Amino acid sequence: MPGRLLLSVQDAYIAFGSKPLFQGLSFNITEGDKICLVGKNGTGKTTLMNIIQGYTELDDGIRWQLEGTTIGYLQQEVTVVPGQSVFDFVFAQLSGEERESQSYKVDMVVQPLGLSIDDRMDRLSGGQVRRAAIARAVVEDPDILLMDEPTNHLDLDIIEWLEDYLKSWRGTLIIISHDKTFLSNVSDRVFWLDRGKLRVCPRGFKYFDEWSLQILEIEEKELLAREKKLEQEVAWASRGVKARLKRNVSRLDRMEDERAKLKRDRNSFNRMMAKIEMPPAEYEELSSKIVAEFFKVGKVFNDHGTERIILDKFNLRIMRGDRIGVLGLNGSGKTSFLRLLVGELQPDSGKVKISPAVEFSYFDQKRQDLEPEFSLWRNLCPDGDHIDVRGKNRHVIGYLKDFLFDADMAHQPVKTLSGGQKNRLMLAKILAHPKNFLILDEPTNDLDMETLDMLEEILAEYEGTLIIVSHDRDFLDQTVTKILAFEGNGQVEGYIGGYSDYLAARKPKPDVAAGAVKAEKIALPEVVVKVAAPLKKLSYKLQFELDHLPQKISSLEVEINLLEDQLSDAALYSRDPVTFQNTSRRLGVARDELEEAETRWLELEEMRANIKG
Prior knowledge:
Blueprint: E1 5-16, E2 19-30, E3 34-39, H1 45-53, E4 60-65, E5 71-74, H2 86-90, H3 96-101, H4 105-110, H5 126-139, E6 144-148, H6 156-168, E7 172-176, H7 180-186, E8 189-194, E9 197-201, H8 208-238, H9 246-273, E10 290-303, E11 306-319, E12 323-328, H10 334-342, E13 349-354, E14 360-363, H11 376-380, E15 386-389, E16 392-395, H12 396-402, H13 419-431, E17 437-441, H14 449-461, E18 465-469, H15 473-479, E19 482-488, E20 491-496, H16 499-505, E21 527-528, H17 540-567, H18 572-575, H19 577-612
Parallel strand pairs: 3-7, 3-8, 5-6, 6-7, 12-18, 12-19, 14-17, 17-18
Antiparallel strand pairs: 1-2, 1-4, 8-9, 10-11, 10-13, 11-21, 15-16, 19-20
Helix pairs in contact: 8-9, 17-19
């Protein structure tokens, strides 16, 4: 049953200058909704978020918000105050009394995000600051929480924790994200912004592709029917009726209006369905099957007197045509591995051998190949107005449009672009003429889904050797056939398949050998890695989870008893149907949560017992 109505927008009109962005915009947000907001760049996702927050005034229409409803927003850009602790930042919006009552969330939220409450914000990495912003948004516990690209720059284990937390969270969520797996796992509705309209899919993102395809097929049939009807009108007009009556003149006017409207609608639909077609890449074919080889490579960094092992006697053979995904925690050595591969970094021990015929195209997440003072045009095409795109001569404006840049942006300096726009420009530059070895370091950050789909299609046709570092699980599943997992402290393991195969392989099996906990993995013949030593104890994260599960189970049992007592009142439904519906819904969720918690406790206890041997 639907929850309470928290916010409603009806028949809204929004325009910037003389150009309308929304006409007749209507939607409702109810208690407990888990909504993902999707749409191409420029369709108004940010504006819609601002309407929900009340920051953007409607030019016309009605915005209604239930009295007392609070709205929170996950900050993309965090202003770091020198000397401010993580605790003070996370609890900044709460009063002293509220802080005390919410302090249990340090254990529940802050620590699972890998943060220490005493650390200083100005000494954290970019990824850690992002995690602190997530902790702050969750701790404030608003009725409606808006999250814009929450998974950017997060490690995969943190993304999975965030998924689990949000699925059990009672509040309302509205999320913008390019991470399809994240959206599929979290959402139960989709708001689709499409050519000035908001279309609502009543199910989660997992079903969005199927649903949206049906919508577009219906639209295509309607356009074809209108075109057929217009052909009949044109045939009538061409017969040359003598002494036309006024009604016939009106009919001609209506026909011309329909012709113009149909042309606009057909052009709009064709733009929506357009796909970027890139000609096949032209590059020198490698004569050798082995394109790169690491032999007993060691690399250690010294951070303020503490040694950090990146690689330890690491062996790897990369074959021509390999498609390898690289994943791991921040600081585990992924980018250092890439720098060793391209020669920007030298090993402390061992050798890195590269085939003489190898030519690298390197997408660096720091975007060092872009000149910030130069325009988009000059970065792509330093001389003239045409760019060679895989052997085909293209005008720079047309090529920029392929990557969703408006023509009037061509002469803007790159320093004025957003992070996502810079990523798109980097991709445009590299994919115009990729070499025989393509390396993409976190290419998906800040990209919209349309650009991601385009990138996946281009990479599917790429026949060279490919390495991708990414935290986007669906993207890895669609693009790579092998996984290198950097586990930290110099340990690297290889898996065949994409991310889903890697995830399945590392799940503990019930028949674990005494003294060790191992995931069943398929060894890559090209990868030689050290076998992990038997675990002596649970990791800090697993031990923390195990220690806090009994309290969680106890709390859920108490809550379930109270809910069952409430529902035992036979007159509750007739007296207060809303409370009856909310209590019934929460009881079902609480029972599921209890079952999951008990199962997880048994798993961790069994794991601990196996380690003790």
